[in-house]
Amino acid sequence: MLDVALIRKDPEKVRRALEKRAVHVDFDAFLEIDAEFRRVQNDIESMRAERRKLSAQVGRTGPDGDALEQVRVKSQEIGAGIKELEGRLAELAVARSDFLDPLPNLPDDDVLPGGKEANETLRVVGEKPRHDFPAQDHVALAENLRLVDYARGVKLSGSGFWVYRGDGAMLEWALLNYFVESHRRDGYEFILPPHILGQEAGYAAGQFPKFAEDVFTVSSGSGEPDRFLIPTSETALIGFHRDETLPEEELPRRYFAYSPCYRSEIGGYRSTERGTLRGHQFQKVEMVQFAHPDHSDAAHQELVAKAERLVADLGLHYRVTKLAAGDMSGAMARTVDVEVWLPSVGAYMEVSSVSHSRDYQARRGNIRYRPRQGKGGFVHTLNGSGLATSRLLPAILEQCQQADGTVRVPEVLHKWGIREVLKPTV
Prior knowledge:
Elements: H1 4-9, H2 11-19, H3 28-61, H4 66-100, E1 120-125, H5 138-144, E2 148-149, H6 150-157, E3 163-164, H7 167-185, E4 189-191, E5 196-197, H8 199-205, E6 217-218, E7 227-229, H9 233-239, E8 245-247, E9 253-262, E10 281-291, H10 296-313, E11 318-322, E12 334-342, E13 347-358, H11 360-365, E14 368-370, E15 377-378, E16 380-388, H12 392-399, E17 407-408, E18 421-422
Parallel strand pairs: 4-9, 8-14
Antiparallel strand pairs: 1-11, 2-3, 5-7, 6-7, 9-10, 10-16, 11-12, 12-13, 13-16, 14-15, 17-18
Helix pairs in contact: 3-4, 5-12, 8-9
């Protein structure tokens, strides 16, 4: 949620920042609602103070016939007035929320306006693989090596699903073990969250209400709000400290979580979406930090470095890209993607988005910190994929394939029982 104090102070600055996302907002109506909201708040506080004063007067003088009755009547009148104003205040609070809730975060000052076309390449690491033989794409390799069964995934669940089998399942599990071991070694706490979440978690993460249609809903059957299948562990981890105040000395809180990720929306059948590149269910390990505002930029750099190291140690060619405002998730102020090269597509595919929300998610989730001294505030939240597997497997297959149709498995994965070379099986 955007800072209302900033909107009051400099609505033009906020408007210009949102325009970098091609979001055009007129704050005049909101500021009128907000001004009335504050007036009603002040009136309620004044009336409560007056009622306390009357109560104190009775306490000092004791019961005194007509005077006591007059105080009682006056107190009732004030109470009725307070109740009426509280009703109006609730209406204004809803109107403020209805205006603010759909608004995305403000991009950082150095984030460029525009969409994908304005993304900046920060660095390219390694060389694109050059094969001196007719290279296969990841779909053909996965089928020939019996790593992924696409047809039976569709038979079981419909389009957008697949089944890992044999060495494919082992490769997937080895990747997850590799990520888990790395994050634990770096001092992150391992979390296994529920796969079904409540509406509050989606709101705090900034996905609801605007992107509620992108998740699979689960009917409660009891008249309560529907819950939903976890779209990413970030949603659960951000909600982990909802409505809490964290001691400053305990910051940063560093977590990572594993879960399947369920998305109701996927693309079509273009080459950039075939195989396991896009689907309704995929596996991911996610990193999240709750950081002090003074140290959150350093935390973002740490997360980017961690995601990069995971990809680099797999021996894959990749690049690092800073996203433009219109290509970022709505809850984020800055995002850096780590993207692997996929030869068959002739493009880089994102395997980690490392994002800084500043205090946007913390405001929505009411997540604060308590300083050793002085005034506290909202924490800053950051997240980064560490990593998503459904695009790593195609990159490994295509970048590490050999002339005889086999695939070399990255050395860092050998310890988890995966074969060093994947070969066709009968």
